[in-house]
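Lecture 7 notes: from sequence to structure.

We start with a single chain of 280 residues. Read the sequence below before looking at the structure.
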Amino acid sequence: MTMGRWGNRPAVVGAFALLAVVLLVPSAADPAAARGAVPVGVRGPAGSFGTVPPARGRPAVENVVFNADSGRRELVVPDPSSIAVLIGDSQADGAAGVPGKQTWPQVALSAAGYTVAFRGRGGTGYATGNGRDPDYVTALRQERWLLPHGDVGLVVIEGGGNDARTGASDAVIASSQAALVAELRRSYPHAPMAVVGTLARSARDGGGRRHQVDDLAGRTARAQGVAFISVGDWLTVHDLAAHLADQVHLDAEGHRLAARYLLQALRNAGLDRQAGPGTP
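Now the structure, written as tokens:
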């Protein structure tokens, strides 16, 4: 039998396969490899903290690793210890003419000294999607957005308003919140974590289901050992209702005031990096 130009073809193919494995396996000296992350060959423009494209069909972005601990791809970023990962709804994503970077959760975290990596979408929640994007934990598991890789400085989850609006049950909201916290701890086992509740009026001021969901989020967070910041009566006790642009979203001045209250709550919980530009 004639070997042709490749000689013993099975042996040559096997050699090439072995070479490919050697080249693709990360060195033990690689910090990402040391914590269970394997580089993934990808292409395309690198996403900034707030603009990683929704991962429908796993889009290609640069600087991505597979974290074996989380079972998900994650985005390699500079200085992860300075980052606050924020997962939220329109209160943090922006609405009623107020852009995301000027919302009360993002402004407060920036003032507390963090670089904010926002993940989430308006209209979503613990158990609620907006028709295009799924609920928080499903979006995370499906890689609709990628988390920053490494030991980040803080993880904050904000939301619950859309779960109140759509009538999600206590059981579904609580189990979804618990599942999200568990998923996030797989990525960030050492990072402090806080849940920010549902912006609402007090119970005596017509807070209704939004106020109830804020209380439920607090009980669920505490059961998992997560810090909780209640905002379920802020529209009343801080007179923020006077700054509503619609029934649930604040105007620009309302966001500025709410950010000041949230910053103080972060400080009270010991979650301020003491490196921020000061009170917003």
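The mean pLDDT is 84. Keep this in mind for problem set 3.
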